[in-house]
Specification:
about 450 residues; alpha+beta; seven-stranded mixed sheet; six-stranded antiparallel sheet
Length: about 450
C-alpha cells in the first residue's frame, strides 16, 4: 500500500433526512449550491431537493466535494445506539456524501480520506485535549484496526462464502458481533465500530498533530496488520481475542495484566471461579484503577462521564425485573430465574458462556456481548461479574446482586489504562507494546 485509502463510513439510515451543504458540491457534472436540503424515500425512489435543486433516482446519488475541506451538516444523527446514553445530535462532516436505498430506507455514507477520518475518531472516542502519547497510540490502533477490517472484508468476499457468527442448539445460543456485519460500507460511525462524529467535536491541533506524526503507521504481527481492538476499561486484565469474537487465536491480543512490569501475563488464573470471584470483589492495582477526574475526562466524552464506576460496579435486579428482561431480550420464557451460572471464563475473568437456569427453561448463552445484551436494557458494562442471591423463598431468589469489573470487551488497548500511562510519562510505542504482545510499528504509506 503506497497511499492512504478513501473510506465509506455509514452514518445513518432513515426514510427522511435533512442536511445542510455548507459549501457547494457536485452531482455528476451539475453544481449544487450550499443551502438546506432534504432527501426522502417515496415509492422506491429517492427525492433530493433544495430551494433551487431537484433530482430523483432509484440508484445511488453521489455528492462530491469540490475541495477536500468542503463540509455538510446531517440533522438528527443517532449516537450511542442501544447504549444507556443514546441520543440524537446534528453532526458536521467533511468529504463526500453517498445516498442509496437499503431495506426500505436511505443509507447515508460519508466518503473521506482515512487520515481525515482518524482525526475525528480520536477526538470522538476521547477528548482532543488528551496527552499527546495517548492520542498517538490511539491513532495507530484505529488506523491498524480499520485497514485490517478492509483487508478482512476483501478476504471474505474472495472466499465467496458467508461469515457465520451465530450457533444455536437446544442447549446453547452462541453469538458474537463484529464489523463483518456491514456489507455496504467499510465502517459505521457508532460504538459498534469506532465513534466517528465528523468535525462535530473540537479537533485540536494536538489531535491533528498526533495523526500527522504517525501518518501511515500501523501495528504488525509477522506480515499481518494487527486487528487492533480497544475498550473503555479492561478492569485490570485484558482478554483474549477468540473469547470475544471468532474462534481464532491472535498472538498480539492476549491477556495482559494492566500494571507494571509492562506486558506481563496475569499472575492469577481468573478462569477459575473462586479466584475470579475474589478478584472481582477486590480493588487490585491497575493502570485503569483510577478516579482521577482529569485523566477520566481525557478519555470520556461528557455522556460517558454520567457513569462514574468503571473499574468496579454493582447493579441489582428483582426477580420480576430479571425474568421480564431476559424474556424480552432473548424471546425465551425462562420462568422464575433460579441461577446465573458461569460455565466458562476467559483469563480476564470475563464470562464467555453463561448458563441461565429458570424453573421453566435453561440455556447457555455467549459470547460476552450477547451476555451483556441479555442482562441489560442497553449493555451490561462487561461480562466480568459475579452474582449474589438474596430474599430466597422456596429456592427462588427475590433479588440478584451483580458485581462486576471493567467496561467493554477488554481486548487490546484499555483506554483508561492508556490515559493513565500517558500521564505517567510512557511513550506511545511503550503503551502499544504493553497492550499488544509482540506487535511492531511499521509505516506502510
Amino acid at each position: 500500500m503506497n497511499k492512504q485509502p478513501i473510506l465509506n463510513v455509514g452514518i445513518m439510515k432513515s426514510t427522511h433526512i435533512e442536511f445542510i451543504l455548507e459549501t457547494g458540491y457536485r452531482v455528476g457534472t451539475n453544481m449544487i449550491p450550499q443551502g438546506n436540503y432534504t432527501i426522502e424515500l417515496r415509492k422506491g425512489k429517492m427525492i433530493l431537493q433544495g430551494q433551487s435543486f431537484l433530482t430523483i433516482s432509484e440508484e445511488e446519488i453521489k455528492l462530491l466535494p469540490i475541495f477536500r475541506t468542503n463540509s455538510f451538516v446531517l440533522k438528527d444523527v443517532t449516537i450511542g445506539i442501544d447504549f444507556h446514553w443514546e441520543q440524537k445530535e446534528d453532526q458536521r462532516f467533511t468529504g463526500g456524501i453517498r445516498f442509496f436505498i437499503d431495506q426500505d430506507a436511505i443509507q447515508v455514507i460519508n466518503t473521506i480520506h482515512l487520515e481525515d477520518y482518524l482525526k475525528s475518531v480520536i477526538s470522538s472516542e476521547m477528548s482532543a485535549t488528551s496527552s499527546v502519547e495517548l492520542l498517538k497510540a490511539h491513532a495507530v490502533i484505529s488506523r491498524s484496526w480499520l485497514i485490517a477490517q478492509i483487508n478482512k472484508k476483501k478476504e471474505i468476499a474472495g472466499r465467496h462464502s458467508g461469515f457465520d457468527s451465530q450457533t444455536d442448539t437446544d442447549l446453547e445460543h452462541i453469538r458474537w458481533y463484529d464489523r463483518e456485519d456491514h456489507h455496504s460500507f467499510d465502517v459505521c460511525a457508532d460504538d459498534h465500530c469506532q465513534r466517528y462524529h465528523g468535525i462535530t467535536k473540537i479537533i485540536s491541533s494536538t489531535a491533528t498533530g498526533a495523526v500527522d506524526d504517525t501518518i501511515g503507521e500501523v501495528l504488525k504481527s509477522q506480515q499481518e496488520i494487527c486487528d487492533a481492538r480497544f475498550s473503555k476499561c479492561c478492569g485490570g486484565v485484558s482478554e483474549n481475542f477468540e473469547n470475544n469474537w471468532e474462534p481464532l487465536h491472535k498472538s498480539y491480543l492476549v491477556a495482559v495484566a494492566d500494571k507494571e512490569p509492562l506486558g506481563t501475563s496475569p499472575n492469577l488464573n481468573l478462569t477459575q471461579e473462586p479466584l475470579a470471584r475474589e478478584w472481582i470483589l477486590s480493588s487490585p492495582k491497575a493502570f485503569c484503577n483510577t478516579t482521577d477526574e482529569k485523566i477520566l475526562s481525557q478519555v470520556l466524552p461528557s455522556f460517558d462521564q454520567k457513569t462514574s464506576d468503571f473499574f468496579r460496579w454493582t447493579i441489582q435486579y428483582s426477580q420480576e425485573e430479571l425474568s421480564s428482561l431476559l424474556k424480552k431480550k432473548s424471546g425465551i420464557d425462562f420462568g422464575s430465574i433460579l441461577r446465573l451460572e458461569p460455565v466458562e471464563r476467559g483469563p480476564s475473568g470475563r464470562i464467555i458462556r453463561l448458563r441461565i437456569v429458570g424453573n421453566q427453561h435453561s440455556l447457555i448463552v455467549g459470547k460476552e456481548l450477547e451476555i451483556r445484551k441479555w442482562l441489560s436494557d442497553s449493555h451490561l458494562y462487561s461480562s466480568c461479574f459475579v452474582v449474589n442471591y438474596e430474599e430466597i423463598e422456596d429456592g427462588i431468589p427475590g433479588k440478584f446482586i451483580i458485581r462486576g469489573a471493567g467496561w467493554g470487551h477488554g481486548s487490546g488497548l484499555c483506554q483508561i489504562g492508556a490515559a493513565v500511562m500517558g500521564e505517567k510519562g510512557f511513550t506511545y510505542d511503550q503503551i502499544l507494546k504493553h497492550y499488544f504482545q509482540g506487535a511492531r510499528l511499521e509505516r506502510i504509506y
